[in-house]
Amino acid sequence: MAVDFCFKFPLPNGLHARPASHFQEITKRFRSKVELIHERTCYKANVRSVLSMVSADIKWEDPCRVQITGEDEQPAMEAVRSFLKNVLPHCDEALPEIAPAAAGALSAAEAPLPRSLKSAGLKSYLRGTAVSGGVGWGDVVLMGCVALPPELEHETATNLAVEQDKASSAIAQVSAAINAKIEAARHRQEIEVLKAHAAIVGDVALAESVAELIDGKRRTAAQAIVDACRTFTDALRNAHSAYLRERILDIEDVCTQLLEKIVWPGAIRVTPRLTSPSICVADQMTPGQFLALDREHLKGLVLSDGGTTSHTVILARSMNVPTLVRVAKAIATLRPGQEAIVDGELGLLVTEIPEPVRRYYRKERDTLAQRRRQLDAFRTRGGKTTDGHTIEVAANVASAQEVAIAMRGGAQGIGLFRTEMLFMDRAAPPGEAEQAEIYCAAVTAAGDRSVIIRLIDIGGDKPAPYLNLPAEVNPFLGYRGARLYREFAELVKTQLRAILRGSVTGDVKILVPMVCCLEEVRDVRQLLTEAAEELAKNGVKIDRLPPLGVMIEVPSVAFLMPELCREVDFFSIGSNDLIQYFLAADRANQKVSNLYTWSHPAFLRLLKSVVDQAKAHGKWIGLCGEMGDAVAALPLLTGLGLDEISLSAPRLGDAKAAINASSFVQCRQLVDAAINCATRAEVESLLQEASATSDANAPAFSADLIVQSDAVTKEEVIRQLTNTLHLAGRVPRRQALEEAIWRREDTYSTGFGHGFAVPHCKCDCLTANSMAIARLATSVEWGSMDGKPVDVVILLAIRPQDHAQQHMRIFARLSRLVMREEFRDHVRQTQDPVELAAYIERELDQRPQPANA
Amino acid sequence: MKIVAVTACPTGIAHTYMAAEQLEKTAKSLGHQIKVETQGAMGIENELSTSDIQQSDVVVFAVDIAVEQPERFFGRKLVQVSVQDAIKDPKGVIARLR
Question: The whole model's pTM is what?
Fold first, then answer.
């Protein structure tokens, strides 16, 4: 007779010492046996033992079962259920808000902060969504807000006529200045922006509004301008179209210029020139503004608003600028000039930096920089598995400037050149010459590598106003991509002619977006032929038309492959939209964004089908969506047999490193296993297993895992050791390891005296069983058994999956060795890590000889 | 004294073996005979046989979790301590066995 109860573990920090001790408390009243079973690992924990429960390694959302056996099992179960429902969920301290899952991430974003950061006393920070990684450090620069200093804000207007004069004079001067700039301007982008500004300053409504505010409300000229600015921008803030919302910045820009004519320039927040390491903060930012910022001094970017796929974000990512979006109230809470840190790993904007936090981030910066340098080693290499299978690793770009950056970063080609940005933010579409210049520049920067240029992919949500696209209730399923080409044939032909011109200077391919049927392909072929003819008439002869391919993003294409293979030259899978259309879930809609995932087995079957069919017909097929950015997905993409994956430039190193460490045969097996899964959870756990076992035979220990440490707290030491393993490629997700170590450490200290500590854990986030040693320059308090501080710390970390006897034996042997004074002295005194590693190897090799009775 | 012991810590990676090492070293230095069975992540090692146990004067459990196959020890003189005790104060633990 036993009673059972199943539940999912509710605490984000997992089952650690504190909730476990609460749980244990309630069993004291009963006599029955109470077990807590981790359903996945089958580990049975005795609920009467806190240590036993903590050893179960139960994490957030793990399926668990409580089993109670005994004479009082019924009342015991009732008490347990009540506890699980009412007490357990509140056992932890209040947790920070969980950010929405990052696209391409395998699991939900880790909300809890690393132990080492919490203990460093991090108090003042804002949370956001990290869209570009790294750590940025600098002084806050607030952008785009128009406001007056207090003394001017409250000034009373004495002479209204004088104020009117000031206002109209300012308008006239600024208007003249802008027009003069238009005359002198060289760059087309700049001219477009200036023309928009001229339109605003000359706007009748602006002048009237200002005049009315002065006369009717007795405002000073400066106040009237600020008020009018706010009225217009407020109205725009509620606009549905992002394009219109971005015009807010233009209005503010103009009003700033007007204010400069009336008050002294220092009084207003202007769009700044960066002169020192800066963190730029804005409500939103246009790509043009971003590109205008001084790259050398721009250390981080914070946007209160902003989606994760906006073009500004895409640019920031490709240029390795740590960026956060959706940081609520950023502008309101920050002061210009204050020091701040953008943490693009955890999604934090740190606004107060006490010394321990400073130390933490300095270490973070160093670790990330070191990791980047390691990945840099892959720059000149291609994507090639250990058993010789090649897959091209290319980059996605949105401008010609990015091409050079991508090639320098080791891209083997440009898998996607998004051309929308050339068409947005302007009053009229770019002409043939302007586009040709850009495409030629891109092709030249790519050298002899291929550049896949995607035709204009615009829709109701990001209109170019000159297209006059109607507002739609459902732009996502509406008039976008290739569907526009019939109506805007001339526009498309202009682009095609420009692309053809570019194709003369290098290897160009043309990609058609949003194709759902064969007719669309035939239409584009026709336009392409006509474009070539038109060029020929102008004396530009195109010997060979560039290959024409289609994006696979509308699911219908998956069932049209044989026909398409007869009429197109290649394919590129646009995973972002394909997943959204296939699973009917909007990734930007927080209510359903959790459904958006590439790990859904049905989606993997779709991919396999599409790739198999393409290959069966001898067609090249690549992937250019964000799925390529996810390291966890790479084994699947490799195993599918794709010819190429194209991702954002900063991800190139990680991708090549992962591919070059994998075996194609195993990747193929992984794909076969994954498509037979029933749920995404099964797929994800399969992938995690696979990533772990691939390094099963890596030695647990090597000289590069012995480090000198200047850490001053236990938290810093543990953090440093996890970084060491991370840099050795043994743990992709550091925080999971850090938390696992602390789970054990919290139970009771691993400092056993003699100045030594042996923190240890089981963690499935490791790719290889590992041992690392830190020798501390200063002794650190460890809560040791003898009350004394510690100067040598040995970390033992093992994966639970494969009870690798070989490594466990090493750890067991090591545990015995540290009890011996001679061994400890050696570890302390041997300076050279290589020599020490050799000594330890020798000692470990000797067979353990426990004494017999 | 003939001592048999079992060490077992929850994670089974380090302290199980550290306790075993301490008990072995200390008991031997005090002139006793000792055989220590470890119950760790590798399972049971140096398993105590029926005759080991029958011939012993006392059984020591230096454990933080339940011992596997505890029925072997039923009826024997048993002293139970925590793993920490065995590591920190092995002499004290041995003293308690008399």
Answer: 0.63
